Amino acid sequence: MIAKDLRVSVRSVRRWRRTWDEGGPRALRSTGPASLPRLSEKQFAQLEAELARGPAAHGWKDQRWTLARVKTVIGRRFHLTYTIRGVRKLLVRNGWSCQVPARRAMERDDDAVAGWVKEVWPCAEGARRPVEPGWYSRTKPDSP
Question: Is residue 43 within 8 Å of 78, Cβ to Cβ?
Answer without folding.
Answer: yes
